[in-house]
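Morning!

This is the sequence you dropped in the shared folder:
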Amino acid sequence: MAVAYHWKIASEARSYEMNVRYLLGLLKSKAIYEYFPGRIRRMTSFYGNIVAPGDLTFDIGSHLGNRAQVLAKLGCKVIAVEPHPYLATYLRNKFAEIGNVIVEEVGVSETRGEATLYSTPGNLTISSLNVEWPDLLHGARPHHIGFSERHMVRTITIEQLIEKYGVPRYCKIDIEGLDVAVLKSLSHPIAVVSFEHLPSLFEKTVEAIEILEMLAPYRFNFFAREAHVFRLANAVRGPELLDALTDAAGSRSSCDIFALAEASL
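The structure's back. Tokens below.
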């Protein structure tokens, strides 16, 4: 009995420590994405020019659900996709009383099945299905972050998400280095698609643009590091975007690229 009792106490201590680490990681993310002065206001203004009430939207890699929150307030139906168990639970609680947000606790990839999600409680922003992501990210933003946890998660393709809910007006993809894997399985043109660009992974951006341009005529624009103000006066074709990104790469900033189907402009 004594051994079992002490094991229980030790286990509860470990659980308490882990919960504290998750809470600190959550607060760190909220400081970056929600508490930064004016950020939610700028997001609301920005997305208000892209979507309309009643539009279906996908938030793939929802994280804290800040985009989902803004899109829902604009009257959109939002499918918030988040594979991390802790964050998915956070999102379900956050949106429990908001009927136009559905939380899907799955990863989106090229294939349906299961995969290992790598993460660390203190830096929930970089959870990824790619175990090499911290090293790849280091090329864009030097850091000292490494993965310390593994979670087996269910995966689906974006086409299966579309089959279940329909073709969205807007789809945001930000899944830490595997945005291209999602796009590879896409066969339905989507009016507006956004994905992450890192100067150190320029070839992935080139591949993403090529995939989208095979689906439909698109024009592109971008903003850097959560600015939510387009850098270019007008959306441009793929080669012109790549030239603009080459000029912007000197800052080593990550960017959000928006692909806008010409039919929707």
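Headline: The chain has one domain: 38-264.

More detail when I'm at my desk.
O.
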